[in-house]
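2024-03-11 09:14:02 INFO queue: dequeued item Recombination protein RecR, len=201
2024-03-11 09:14:02 INFO validating residues
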Amino acid sequence: MSFYPSSILNLIRNISRLPGIGEKTAERLAMHILRAPRREAEQLARSILEMKDKTKLCSTCYALSDSHICSICSDQTRSAAILCVVEQPADMVAIEKSGSYKGLYHILQGVLSPMNGVGPDKIRIKELVLRIEKNMVKEVVLATGTNVEGEATASYIAQLLNKYPVKITRIASGVPMGGDLKYVDQVTLKRAMETRHAVDF
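2024-03-11 09:14:37 INFO prediction written
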């Protein structure tokens, strides 16, 4: 790509550093930005800088926010009695998109991973306990991932909260809707069997 001028090469290099974007995609995006009106390029540059300047963590749940308290924590219509614990802001967004949950969240900003040096003090577990001690939380929904780290984190939190008068639940996991059993992995199938429930007719 040495036939591109250095300004374009620099942009391609910077875009290709983004996760999931290879050199060819970065080249296409750079060419798109080059052909776009200057106003659009300026809007893109400004939006990136604005995001870097304004985005912070909500002081209550640790979601991404432009203000001290995020829009979910400040929403008076949501139930403060139920708290959904997730690993990352993207997990909260996924649950919100489902439209199935109207409580509040607590974002751990990671999972326990002793192999990588991530212990309880490296994620927001202490803050979770403080929220439960200070607020009228009646149920904690553990919605961490179903991989080894996610399961270990959920188990650790469940044991930690056992001494508090709160109901502790875990999101169900198993065979996806429309899934064909012969293509489902063994761990998922095992969980589906373990969490089976009665069928109402």
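2024-03-11 09:14:37 INFO annotate: Residues 172-201 form one domain.
2024-03-11 09:14:38 INFO item closed
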